[in-house]
Amino acid sequence: TPRVSPYRLAAHLTSAFVIYTGLLWTALSVANPVALADQLASSANELGAKVAQQQIEALKVIRRRVHPLAALVA
């Protein structure tokens, strides 16, 4: 029977945890973009209110499209 090095197993498990954490972090930030929307709204003075509003609307569109994709993947 083939044997697998414990170092390779540990490296694979670590990379799996890193990838899963990254996916979870991204999913939570997409599902709850309040902080990003607040940040965009607070920088409205620099960017202009119209540009900030367009960016917030773009985030809402992305959020509506991500939920069905997340359900498909899950």
Characterise this structure:
By secondary structure, the chain is an all-alpha fold. The protein contains 4 helices and no strands. The model has no long low-confidence stretch (mean pLDDT 79).
List the helices and strands and how they pair.
Elements: H1 6-31, H2 34-42, H3 44-47, H4 49-73
Morphology: elongated
Instruction: Tell me the total number of β-strands.
Output: 0
The quaternary organization reads as single chain
Instruction: Specify the structural class.
Output: mainly alpha
Short synopsis of the structure:
The chain is built from four helices and no strands.
List keywords for this structure.
single chain, 74 residues
